[in-house]
Design goal:
- This protein has 126 residues and is α+β, with helices and mostly antiparallel strands.
- It has one domain.
- The chain is built from 2 helices and 3 strands, in the order H-H-E-E-E.
- It has a 3-stranded antiparallel β-sheet, with helices on one face.
- Strand 1 and strand 2 form a beta hairpin.
- It is elongated.
- The chain starts with 10 loop residues before the first helix and ends in an 8-residue tail after the last strand.
């Protein structure tokens, strides 16, 4: 014996459409956000490499700032990024700060990048 309830017809189809819309929205947000995070990861790695080279070669902190400024377009970093090089505790250090706008449908996210890279202690030039 099989009973059909008229108020339940199509509910699986509606749930499926809702799930597809939610998954699509999450996928689209990931499509916008993941490349920004990936470029940030690569730029942090480049910052660390640059301060390590500066420390091992005996370059001044201004050299680090120049190298990072030259590479800003490659890592899609805004030209108005604040780059602050320094020598602290016998190490080369650089801090980069900027704000990137990520535009989602109906919302603009202000992504704030603030990272400080310090050279490793054993590479310090004496």
């Amino acid at each position: 014996m099989h009973f059909h309830k008229t108020d339940e017809r199509g509910s699986a189809r509606v749930n499926f459409i809702i799930v597809l819309l939610v998954l699509g929205a999450i996928g689209y947000c990931g499509y916008l956000y993941v490349p920004v995070m990936y470029r940030e990861y690569l730029f942090k790695d480049w910052m660390q490499h640059t301060v390590d080279v500066a420390s091992a070669s005996g370059y001044k902190p201004d050299w680090v700032s120049d190298q990072l400024t030259k590479s800003l377009p490659e890592y899609d970093v805004p030209a108005d990024a604040l780059i602050t090089p320094a020598n602290r505790d016998n190490r080369v250090e650089v801090r980069v700060q900027y704000i990137r706008k990520i535009e989602f449908p109906g919302y603009t996210y202000q992504y704030q990048f603030d990272h400080t890279a310090r050279s490793t202690a054993f590479l310090t030039f004496k």
